[in-house]
Specification:
Layout lengths: L4 E6 L6 H11 L4 E7 L10 H11 L6 E6 L3 H8 L3 E6 L2 H17 L4 E6 L9 H9 L10 H12 L1
Length: 161
């Protein structure tokens, strides 16, 4: 029987506890989850691609069912080439759903055999986004409860450097 692989795409700049929760819950549904790390440098990420990859690798060290790949191009093509059966997405609220539903329809048009699976964020993480975490951290706010400890340390160091 073929392994069921889900692709979890995003910029993960930085990876938050909400992202980690989606990956872990995805492992309950799929044999493997691949974090597809966007290589979109036009978004001017705070962490370079290699730094984000290293932080994600460290987060899931010892979990052989999680891998990290670089996504540069069409998500459904990436998923098809990886042999994925699904795209895994987290939803924080209605505005996420509005955007994601359009993507689902286009992705289904392009690759009908690849499903999209939505997982609702946990209540305590429903308002957290990487952008918000970065903005609050830049202004000196405490975001430690929203990030894995090693990522929080890296973010503080990056902002101070």
């Amino acid at each position: 029987m073929r392994e069921r692989l889900a692709i979890f795409p995003g910029s993960f700049d930085p990876l938050t506890n909400g992202h980690v929760d989606i990956v872990r819950r995805g492992l309950a549904l799929f044999d493997k989850v691949q974090v597809a790390l966007a290589i979109n440098e036009s978004k001017r990420p705070i962490f370079a691609f290699d730094e984000r990859r290293a932080l994600i690798d460290e987060m899931f060290a010892g979990e052989d069912r999680v891998s990290v790949g670089g996504l540069d191009g069409l998500l459904v093509e990436y998923a098809r080439q990886a042999g994925a059966v699904a795209i895994l997405r987290g939803l924080r609220g209605p505005s996420d759903f509005d955007y994601e539903l359009k993507m689902v329809h286009m992705n289904h048009h392009l690759a009908p055999g690849i499903e999209t699976v939505f997982l609702a964020s946990r209540t305590e993480q429903s308002f957290v986004s990487s952008s918000l975490v970065k903005e609050v951290a830049r202004l000196g706010g405490d975001v430690s409860s929203h990030l894995p400890p090693h990522i929080h340390t890296a973010l503080v160091a990056k902002l101070q450097g």
